[in-house]
Amino acid sequence: YILYILIYIPIFVFVLLRKLIKEEGENDFQEELVIRPLHSGDIYASFQFRTLWETDFMRENKVSHYRLFPKSLGQVISKFSVRELHISFTQGYWRTMQWGQPFLPSPPGAELWVWFQDSVTDVDAAWKELTNVLSGIFCASLNFIDSTNTVQPSASFKPLGIVNETDHRFLRYATLPREIVCTENLTPWKKLLPCGSKAGLAVLLKSEKLFHSSFFSQTVHIRPVCQDRECKTTSWELRQTLNVVFDLHTSGQGKREWSLFKMFSRTLTEACPLASSSKIYIDVTDNPQEEYFELSPATPLLSQAVVLGDRRTFSVYDLTQQVTFGTVRSLNLLIRWKSTEGDMLRPLLHAERYVAGYGLQTGEIHTVMYNNHPFRSFPVLLLDSVPWYLRLYIHTLTVTSKGKDNTPSYIHYQPSKDRMRPHLLEMLVQLPPHSVTEVTVQFERALLKWTEYTPDPNHGFYVGSSVISALVPSSVAMDTNITQEQPLFSSFFPCKEESSYFVRVYTEPLLVNLPTPDFSMPYNVICLTCTVVAVGYGSLYNLLTRSFQIEEPNPRLAKKIANFIRRIRGVPLLS
Amino acid sequence: MAAPLTLLLVVAVTIRAALYRSSLAEVIAERVEVVSPITAWKRVIEGLALLDLGVSPYSGDVFHETPLVIYLFHFLVDYAEITFMLADVISAIALYLAVKEYNKQVVRKKQKFALEADRYPQDCLELIRSPKEMLYIPLKVAMFYLLNPFTILSCVAKSTCGLNNAPQIITPHCFKISFAVFLCLATYQSIYPLTLCAPAMLYLMQRQYIPVNYRRASFWWFVVQYLFMYLGSLFVLICLSFFLLGSWDYLPSVYGFILSVPDLTPNIGLFWYFFAEMFEHFRLFFLCVFQINVFFYTVPLSIKLKDHPVFLMFMQLAVISIFKSYPTVGDIALYMALLPVWSHLHRFLRNIFLVSCVLLACSVLFPVLWHLWIYAGSANSNFYYAITLLFNVAQILLVSDYFYAFLRREHHLIHGLYLKKKDGSEATLVLK
Which InterPro entries does this UniProt record tie to the protein (chain A) (predicted)? Predict the structure, then answer.
């Protein structure tokens, strides 16, 4: 009996304790690396790390036991009643025409957009505090986000997680195109991962190789997601993605041969022990019979996924299986090219933006959108946020497609207020098939106060990228079933219908010069202008307070002194 | 007199119409010397476009006109050119009639003077003008206004400055208190014509033979009547504007903008560079100083010139044009049009050659240095600022010179033209 008691009581206590602690909910962590060789010889690597946690941040008693979900972000969510948070730091510009569409687009610089819960009463105060806290977490200068670069888009940037109702008063969007990304931002980002940079795919993230690339982007996305089709249970999803494009000539030394060691100067030895799945996907769609490049070590696993409207085939390496690492206990993928044939799929939607005009007084912003679909037209939503010191004239807005006028069906324009908020222009434009649509708007450059210029004023001022959001017709049926197991990189944007997929395209940021005053002259200017005003005052004062008199000549000084002495002596004065 | 005036009007309208049709119209409409953030036509169109989009024109910082202007141009936007030409024509006719009226009064005074000629020194008879000399002055004034390049540029640029000038010119022509409405209209558009209240009141009192003596009840009664009329119509206009757009948004956008000068677009005035280079700590102080500077010459000038309200009006118009927050060449054209009325003062003017040379040179240099700064990039803002300073100094010298000449002529009328010192040699007059 004593034996039974000794065995069963601990088990009973253990089960009871587990039931009590169960309130923390399920934690799940997955990591993934997708490598896509690009047509130009460059290589695109996208890391995705996802943590799912079934918990409720918004309940009364605070969550205190964090396991895989980082505590700093969890506290941010509960303190500021955040419903969705999307932040990205990008260095470089994504060249859509050469590289195709990215899995997750991001604009150059820093971008932050947040949906707050309906319970927040003062969204602006929460936004200001949130940007400062995030600035501390990511060691970035997000504190420069204030009302002069924050907008509330009315139609773009709908929530990507569970959608209840969307009152855009709870949405805030801001970009800092001037923000630079460096190791300082990568380190705190890596710290948010459950395994840190010690195990799993994150060991590859070494800054000396990552920042020596054509394009680098690290993002954090937090949103509530449904766990099943009826959405009875919801959990919080934290996705961290890192996209990097290595250049053939800078990182590849001109040789079309890429390996993990060449890209990241590390090889993989184990998966993250806390991860439920850890996989590497290599895009081999263009290489069915291995005629263009050869992949080693060979892997039997093959998977297909519909990503960006196209069915792609991937070779999969499962890092949770020991056999993947082979006898050397380390995985160094090698992709060697045999020939340079093959052409790239043209992206269906891409956009450019530039400033036209000359001189420092006026200019024109041109946004050019290309619809490369041969026979389908689709609407796009264009969001433009222009700083207040470029005064837009909305009556000069023209939208032309194929040379003819193309009136947008929806325009939401919020004019700027000097030193308070920027311009916000949102338009729904229908792009005809196989056409180029050009949106132009004129602006006037303002002269700012001398303290409002940056320390290098002749560098210019940045205007954030335009955002073009569209549902692009897909050539392959998309899967709308959210519960099915899909690779992370293909399941970021929610898919509502089968025939189209969601695409967001960012244009280039603009660099605009403003006329500058002379910064060395404040004292001189004040003195000179006050002198001119004083000249006016002085002459009018003279004429108002004095009257005309006949001038009697003043006697010479010598005569004056002589007269003075004579007066003392009592002798008659000189004339 | 009607025929030469009609001919002048026809010529002026032809010049303006010709310029409207040419490609120069767009170039002129962009020039910062001719248009300011308050008067630009581009901004009027922008305000109307915002209204069409369903957004209040005052929610942004581009549109700074009064609601009545929106209302007016809502109907007249297709006939804008005709509206501005008509405004110029009406201003010219009003000037013509006003100066003619003034000349009649001067002749009457002169006759009174001639009757009492024995009380005054003999030699100042040559200072008095004959009616024959004064015959062509109204025509000259109308010509100075219509054919002044500044006015033509302002009209071709469709700057609403022309619309602001028209009520200011009609004011001196009034001989009924009910014409205070026009002054009220001018004040409603930009705040500065408020200072024209004093000369208008003094002129009316002179016409109605009310003595300007603060001890007399009739003086105060007149002042109260005029102010009641003026403030009443101002109140009516402001409430009307509120009902037009349904909100008070236009008050900070129009009047707050004029008074607090947030927009530092370069113009021919003194404010823009001063506040671009101002230390933040002192900004409010200097803003108040500069704004008070426009208003506080009214009382001293009124006291000194209470017997000469038309000259007082000229001085006030000049002070407003030079020291207002966003001046344009249209404002300058307004007071320059009145210069022929004082053509008899030319013998006492001291700096007229220097002033006219500087004004001419600066007018030519403005576009040159603007091009060098903004387009060529080989000059910087200091060049344009320097020309601004010179231009304003020249204007101040011009105005003070005319004031000096006026006061000196008055002095000579009383004390005689050829003055002698105690020892019999020729005297020099100084201000002491």
Answer: PIG-T
